[in-house]
Specification:
This protein has eight helices and no strands. By secondary structure, the chain is mostly helical. α6 crosses α7.
Length: 169
């Protein structure tokens, strides 16, 4: 079963469909107006904190006020989402572009595409009511890309050590 899943993911068309799906997901989240975006983040926060009972009897505007009182946690959650989104986007791009002979080029191209998409996403947000495009968000997104690069380098290093051990024995 696991081999079948891996084989499907290795299919080039599927790889690019996953990249496009991730980009569309990021676009959809960015297209939410500020109130809907804040509300959605609040729902995620209360789920994480397991405090949904506290908000179950509140109407929409009271719920928004409740989330606003937790502004620091909301901000951390929102910035973490940026990092995670672009970490995943980078890995999907890297996987779609992957050629064993040009690891560095794969990483550079995937990084450039992901960061350019982050810039375009922030420009898109300039046209969404209540949202703004910020350089800080591009930098936060770029942190996710950088972490993706580090993850790839760690995996490559671990695989090379594993190969060395099997060749020695």
């Amino acid at each position: 079963m696991m081999r079948r899943i891996i084989k499907i993911i290795q299919n080039r068309i599927i790889k690019w469909i996953l990249v496009i799906g991730c980009m569309l997901s990021i676009f959809a989240m960015s297209h939410l107006d500020s109130v809907k975006s804040w509300y959605m983040t609040g729902k995620v926060l209360t789920t994480i904190e397991q405090t949904t009972d506290e908000t179950s009897d509140l109407d929409y505007s009271e719920e928004i006020q409740y989330y606003s009182a937790k502004e620091s946690a909301m901000l951390i959650l929102r910035k973490s989402a940026h990092v995670i989104e672009y970490f995943v986007l980078f890995l999907l791009l890297f996987n779609a572009l992957y050629k064993p002979s040009s690891l560095r080029n794969n990483m550079v191209i995937a990084s450039v595409i992901a960061v350019v998409y982050a810039v375009l996403d922030e420009i898109h947000q300039l046209f969404v009511p209540g949202r703004s495009g910020t350089v800080l968000d591009v930098l936060t997104d770029s942190l996710g890309v950088f972490m993706g690069c580090l993850a790839i380098l760690v995996v490559v290093k671990l695989n090379s050590k594993k190969k060395e051990k099997t060749q020695v024995t």
